[in-house]
Every structure is written in C-alpha cells, then in structure tokens.
# Entry
Amino acid sequence: MSGTRRPSLTVSVCVAVLAAAWVTVAGRASALESSKETIGELLKIQAQVQSRLDLVSRAVVAVESDDGAASGVIVSPDGLVMTAAHVTTNPGRKILLHLADGTKTGCKSLGLDKSTDAAMMRIDGDRKDWPYVPLCRDLRMAKPGTWCFALGHPGGYDAKRGPVLRVGRVLKQMANGLQTDCVLMGGDSGGPLFNLDGEVIGIHSQIWEERDQNVHVSVAPFLRAWDTLKQSHVVRVWNTGVGGWLGVMTRISSAAELEIAEVAKDSPAAKAGLQSGDVIVTLDGERMLDQPQFSSAINSRAAGQRISLRLRGKSGPRVVEVSLGTKPVED
# Structure
C-alpha cells in the first residue's frame, strides 16, 4: 500500500489493499492462515495506521550522499537517526538529510554494526526538539502475523509526494531481523518499519523483488550496542559460539542461497580454506537456509568443537572439516 505523508487514500481503496495484503500473506504463511480479518477489522487497522501516520512521518528522513538515495528515522529529540549500515558505510561521513517538511540539514554518520546492517547518525547542531519516534523495546511483540507499516523515500526525496507508506505483516522473526511483505524499493534502505502503535520495530535492510522476501534489521542490535554506535565504533560481530569462533560473515545471494561474504584473517575459516563466494549448503548435515539459522548453529557449539561444512564454490562442491576457535577480542 502506498500513499503520501497525509493519510489521503479513500477508505474503500485502503480496505481493498489491506484485504489484498491479507490474501497474499495467508496464501504463503501457514502461521497466518487462521487469522482472517473481516472488513470491519481491516477498517480498524486502517484507522490505526492513519492515526499514527502524520506524526511518525515527520521523523522519517531522506538520505542524500555520494552513494545515492536512502532513508532513515529520527529517534531522539537531539537528532539521533537510525538507518542501515550499508547506507552510511563508515563513521564520520558528512551526509545531507531531507525532512518530510522539506527542511534540509547536515548530519554525521556514527557507528555501525556490519554483521546486522544497523547504523546510527546524528544531525548537526545543538537543536533539542527534532521530531522523533519511539522504539518498541518488547521484541516479542513483532511476531509472525503482526500488522506493520513501512515508510521511506523510494527513489529519493520528492517534496510533492513525501514519505511513502506500505502496509503489511511480519512473516518471520529472526534473531536480529524481521521479514515482512511490505513492498520496498530502491531508496527505502534505512527507513523505518513500525508497529500499529507507531513504534519502530525495524530498519529496512535487504530489498528483494519478491514482496515476501524483504528483510529489516530489528531494534535488537541497536539496543544491544546503543552506546557503542553513539561513540562511532564499528561493531564486527562474527558468527561465534559461547567461546567458539568460525570467522565468517554471511549474506543471502541473488540466488537466495547462504553465501560467505567475508573471511576473517587467521580465523579457523581462513585456515580451512573457506573463501568469499562459497555457498554454505549444510553444517553437520543440516541444510542452511539463512543467516540467523547459521548463526544459531554456530552459537550452539563451543571452541574446539569440530564441524563439517558442505560447500559449493567456483571449483564445485566440497566438504570441509573445521575446528572452531576462540573469538578474538575486537574493538
């Protein structure tokens, strides 16, 4: 569902789109099949979104940098902005923001978490009354089936259009992320995902062509590293166990496979010959489908434990035995 910063769509159109969203989700996710909203219930959801829209849209910003257009959201009156790490890329960058009302202001990128795609910025100056939105601190509430709405500036800032609204549902809850069916586009990266109370529950991270594959960073890594991000540190949390360490960062490839993005120098993975671009097929015989599943599998193993990875690389499939190490201390 799309709209402007004003809830101007007609009731009939909003209800029709909400109903279509339900059909899409219910057709794909069995966890949602038992929840079938009536027209009256859809009208109630519409009213909840419209009651929050004008207020929260004031805190949504368009990000303009040398890397292109993106989005973010102000989360404190003194100008802290949450966005995605792939938007800021590094601490200390000067970035231009467009507010929903057309105001332009500079900001500086602060810290980022490269493993989860969480990042923070701060608006320049000493102003203490920026429009801002609250965070949802009860992460259990963003469970599959929960209605939500996404805001952002797809394609960059447009004064006539304002922030664009999409309504959908949470399809999957992960350790550091959420998967929804809110339709996202280029320029939405870093924008906010809200619950119906107008609280931020995620930041747009991975945008895919299929509407049910979009991934948002949850607020969990932000809350976990809040002071670290404010102090402009780069958080590098590799896939580790309670003392076990493999030393890889992963991503989902364009073919929707779990792929190694980076291998830490002198890590167990590097010593075993793992390479960037290798597809992780199984771990100890269990098929690996996504990053949270793989992280969880590594987290359940201790330092010194030997694991078997079935990989597919440029030279074809292979099986690699790796002994997990002890995680090194990192800044």
